Structure formats: structure tokens, C-alpha cells
């Protein structure tokens, strides 16, 4: 009886170890990798998304993802019309990003855009522009 108990315990421990190492079971105390509305760079690239950079014109002129559109909160209407024009011609998912992962502007803009374009698929890029540069 002790032998059977040890075998069952051993098999259980092997299963638990395999699940944790194989990421089949979430680790206790670890939050989700993505927040609601976020997307990884590789997934966004696979979707052939429309890229939207937040921030001012100076940051945009300095550096941005190729073919990205500028959507500045201070000039919302102009940026929104450009984005709508691109999206209406060829509807694709929209991915908003800002300069760094700690920047919450992309999440705020994504939320605002979801209200303006409720039928569009809108995400914020996990990691910001830094994800693109890695």
C-alpha cells in the first residue's frame, strides 16, 4: 500500500513539474502576460495592422515605425480623419503604440478610438516602440 501511494505521489509531482515547465498551468502570483486590448509585436505584424503612433509631431518626425500614422491628442480630428481614411480604404486591425512600455498614452488613445470606431479591431502594442527595436 505504501508502494502504491509513493508511485501515485511521484506521478503527481512529475505531472505538476511538467505543467509548470511546459507553461500548461499558470504560475501562482503571476499576472497575465497581456492586459486587455494589448497585442504582441509579432501578432500585430502577422495581422498587417495599421500602425498609429501617439505623441507630438516632434517625436513622430524624429522616429516612428514605417508607414505609421500620427494621432496626437492635441490634434485629434486631423489624426482621426487620416486614420479613418486608411482604415476605410482597407479595413485592418489598428495598433497604437507610444515610445515606451511605461507610456499609457497608447492605451488611452485605443480606448478613445474604440468609441469613435466601434467596428474596428484596435490594440495597443505591448512594450511600445521598444518592442519594435528589439
What does this entry look like structurally?
By secondary structure, the protein is of the alpha/beta class. It has 2 domains: 1-31, no CATH class; 32-133, Rhodanese-like domain (Oxidized Rhodanese, domain 1, 3-Layer(aba) Sandwich), CATH 3.40.250.10. The protein is 48% helix and 13% strand. It has 6 helices and 5 strands. The protein has helices at 2-21, 41-46, 57-62, 76-89, 105-116, 128-133, and strands at 38-39, 50-54, 69-71, 94-97, 122-125. 22% of the residues are buried. The model has no long low-confidence stretch (mean pLDDT 78).
Give a brief rundown of this model.
With 134 residues, the protein is an alpha/beta fold. The chain has helices at 2-21, 41-46, 57-62, 76-89, 105-116, 128-133; strands spanning 38-39, 50-54, 69-71, 94-97, 122-125. It contains six helices and five strands; from the N terminus they run αβαβαβαβαβα.
Mean pLDDT: 78
Give me the strand/helix succession: HEHEHEHEHEH
How many domain regions? 2
Superfamily at the CATH H level of the largest domain?
A: Rhodanese-like domain
CATH architecture level-2 label of the largest domain: 3-Layer(aba) Sandwich
CATH topology of the largest domain: Oxidized Rhodanese, domain 1
Amino acid at each position: 500500500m505504501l508502494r502504491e501511494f509513493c508511485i501515485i505521489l511521484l506521478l503527481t509531482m512529475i505531472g505538476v513539474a511538467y505543467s509548470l515547465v511546459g507553461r500548461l498551468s499558470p504560475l501562482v502570483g503571476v499576472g497575465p502576460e497581456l492586459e486587455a486590448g494589448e497585442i504582441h509585436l509579432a501578432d500585430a505584424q502577422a495581422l498587417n495592422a495599421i500602425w498609429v503612433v501617439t505623441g507630438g509631431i516632434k517625436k513622430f518626425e524624429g522616429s516612428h515605425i514605417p508607414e505609421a500614422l500620427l494621432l496626437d491628442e492635441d490634434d485629434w480630428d486631423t489624426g482621426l480623419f487620416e486614420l479613418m481614411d486608411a482604415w476605410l480604404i482597407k479595413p485592418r486591425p489598428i495598433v497604437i503604440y507610444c515610445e515606451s512600455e511605461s507610456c499609457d498614452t497608447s492605451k488611452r488613445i485605443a480606448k478613445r478610438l474604440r468609441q469613435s470606431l466601434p467596428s474596428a479591431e484596435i490594440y495597443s502594442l505591448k512594450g511600445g516602440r521598444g518592442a519594435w527595436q528589439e
